[in-house]
Amino acid sequence: MRPNIMAFAMFLLIGFALPGYSAVKVIYDTGKTHSISPFYIALQGQGVKRKSVVYKGPMTIGIDQQIPYKTPNMKPGVFKTYRKDIKHKRGYLRPMFLIGTDTLSKKWLTKNRTTLIKRGAQGILVEASTKAQVEEMNRIARGLKLNYFSAYEIARNLQLTRYPVLISKEYIEQ
């Protein structure tokens, strides 16, 4: 009789515990995420004497710590503009452009800078090898907000393979 009770108890334990394990669900995304890699680096040090740390607000990572980076599924090139209705969970998509540090991106940004400013577009510099490249792109983009990170997920979700590109609610264009 005792083994049956143990088996039943294990069945209940496993039966009710497993459904609790599921994928992470994003409830709200503010768009102000920060990399957790500095925390991983801190956790990797074994045998290191630890000091107490005082929280001083959100962690910011300088561009020096982000370089080099790239978007492996994108490269510079030309493509035809096409219509694509992009659904956004809030119903509004601010125009966004993806550029690199290549000559084509520099020319495109120089040519379209005024239009991009008028449209309120935000930029993503999808690849950079040096801080000097980032600074040069910031000089060209003066008046525009440039973010620095790999746009792998954006490119994958929108099936983009080339940059520079402007993404709006209705069009993906160059």
Output mean pLDDT: 75
| Model regions low in confidence, pLDDT < 50 over at least 5 residues | none
- The termini sit apart by 75 Å
The helix tally amounts to: 6
What is the overall silhouette?
Answer: elongated
Give me the CATH architecture of the domain at 63-173, please.
Answer: 3-Layer(aba) Sandwich
Q: What is the CATH T-level topology of the domain at 63-173?
A: Glutaredoxin
Kindly report the oligomeric state of this protein.
single chain
Proportion of residues in extended strands: 5-15%
Order of helices and strands: HHHEEEHEHEHEEE
- Secondary structure tally: strands: 8
User: Which class of the domain at 63-173 in CATH terms?
Assistant: Alpha Beta
Radius of gyration: 23 Å
Specify the structural class: alpha/beta
Helix % is: 25-40%
Report on this model:
The protein has 174 residues and is α/β, with parallel strands linked by helices. The chain has a domain at 63-173: 3-Layer(aba) Sandwich (Glutaredoxin), CATH 3.40.30. The strands form two sheets. A six-stranded mixed beta sheet has the order 2-8-7-3-4-5, covered by helices on one side. The chain has a two-stranded parallel sheet with strand order 1-6. Helices cover 36% and strands 14% of the residues. β4, α5 and β5 form a beta-alpha-beta unit. The protein is built from six helices and eight strands. The model has no long low-confidence stretch (mean pLDDT 75). It has helices at 2-17, 37-44, 63-66, 103-119, 131-140, 152-158, and strands spanning 75-76, 82-83, 96-99, 122-125, 145-148, 162-163, 165-167, 171-173.
